[in-house]
Every structure is written in C-alpha cells, then in structure tokens.
C-alpha cells in the first residue's frame, strides 16, 4: 500500500492574463522507504507540484485532484488540520536554505520553534531533540552551531540544518513519514552535493522515510532514486524504475535529457548536444502533444490530442503515441 498517493493533481494560477495551468493531471505513488525522483527542466511544474502537496502555494493558485496521505485527502482537510500534517507527517526541504532560514534567528531557536509547533514539549526537550538531529545530519560541533546564525554557516551546512529541521522530533515521537526535497543540491559544489545525497539515503534507511526528490539533474537522480518520474510542461511524460527508464527511455523527451547530460568520455571540441526549441508557455493552446514541436520522432498522429499516460512495460508508463514501439522492442 502506498504511503502517498497523488491522483489527477492540477494547479492553475489566476493571473491578469487569465487562468494559467502549471500542473496538469499529475499522478504518482510513493511507498515507505522509497526515493522517487521528479525530473524536468525549469518551469516543468516540479516545484509547483511539491508546494501543492504541502498546500503552501500562493493564494492565486487553484488546486484540484487528490493527495491521499495515510488514508486522508490532504486537499480536503481544513487548514487547521493541514497545519498539523505539515512538518509532522509531510516535511519539506526548500530549494535555497539561505532564503528559507530566518537570518535574524539562531539555528537552535529555529529548530526548537519548529519542534514546539508540532509537539507539546518544553524548550529544554526541544533543544535536546534539535541537538540530536543536528548530530544525525553530521553537523560538526552541533552545540556551537545551535548558537550561530545562518550566515555563519556554509551552504552545505545550511542545507543540513534544513534537513535537520524537517525531520527533528522529540524522543519517542513520530517523525515525518515523507520528506520532499526540492533541489537540495542546487548551488553546492560536487563534493558537497555527494555528501547531501549520501545523507538523504542514510536518513531514509535509518528512519524509513519516503523521499520525493525534485531536481533537474539526472546525475542526482541516478545516484539516489529508486524510481523516476519525468515532467514536461506540467505533465508527467514518463515514469518507472530508475534502471529501466535510464536504459531504455520510452519518451523522446527522456531520451533527449539523457543525451544532453554531460559525460567524461564526450568528444572534446565539438558542440554540446541540445534539445531543440524551448518549452511552451503554459498559457498556450496546443492541440496535440506539447513536446511535438521539439520532438525528432514526431509523426502526424502527434497533433491529434494529448496522449494518455499509457503502460509500456511492467511498472512503466509513457505519454507518447509511439510508446507501443517500446513495447514491441522489449518483446
């Protein structure tokens, strides 16, 4: 049984130009102890999806669909009940810790404040739990860091603090079951990126977390995820086990992303491969497949309506009118 079951999720923003859809008919499941990588270019709808799950989008956003967590539809909960879920059931690590952390509050005060918002504990108990979690995320000299401000810490340490704040809980209390990590390695150097990814995997193993890992970096997904869902123009266009999707991608967009990923054995001096064109404006009206203008495998049928997310193999699906060719190739 899935811990988190997202069904037909859609997000539309009310703008001066009218309603603009950002997320369209997104569906996926997340099981306990699983890491799902949500991949796509900037503007594909990844972050809007994560913020919709937490119900922390701008008031101009209209959210529809279902987000079933532990048997309850989070989109149907009153706001006072949803506040009890945020941070206690579902927790989130935001993309840029320097803007997510309060610059005028000490690190220890920020973590203890989050703890006391969800648990009836004393300040002393909250500080003890905060220290314990800082040790769990391998922060050096945690007692010192508790007294420091965000600007005293490096980018990698701030990201560890964000993870600690998301997962901190007093002794014997239930920790969040789902961690949403939105671009957790952005702006970090490669060595620190690897450390943060190793940390996420170790916390998954230690606490039995389910992790939704949002990124544009296929290398991050390859190192971390069990399954992958590829987003384009607000829709999931392919999903399945990581190894299967990477070894035999069923959607042309996935193939394009894998082709343009830099490799050490790439030819020197030549042009880097690219996906031609650009992602469409969300407010555009496109009759067929939204990737068709950029697709090198397009056929006339691509104009005849948006393809459904169809099963192409066991535990795999793709949104392409030529997905049957993948099934034939696998047979």
Taken as a percent bin, the fraction of beta residues is 15-25%
Rg, rounded, reads 21 Å
Specify the structural class. alpha/beta
- How many individual β-strands? 12
Please work out how many helical segments DSSP would assign: 12
Outline the biggest β-sheet.
8 strands, mixed
Average residue-wise pLDDT: 91
How would you sum up the global shape?
A: globular
Termini gap: 29 Å
N to C succession of SSEs: EEEHEEHEHHHHHEHEHEEHHEEH
Q: Please estimate the helix content.
A: 25-40%
Description of the molecule:
There is one protein chain. The chain is of the alpha/beta class and about 325 residues long. The protein is about 35% helix and about 25% strand. The protein contains 12 helices and 12 strands. The protein has helices at about 45-55, 80-85, 95-100, 105-120, 125-135, 140-145, 155-165, 190-205, 220-225, 240-245, 250-260, 325-330, and strands spanning about 5-15, 20-30, 35-40, 60-70, 70-75, 90-95, 180, 210-215, 225-230, 235-240, 310-315, 315-320. It has an 8-stranded mixed sheet with strand order 6-7-8-3-9-10-12-11, sandwiched between helices. Strands 2-1-4-5 form a 4-stranded antiparallel sheet. Strand 1 and strand 2 (about 20-30) form a beta hairpin. It starts with a strand and ends with a helix.
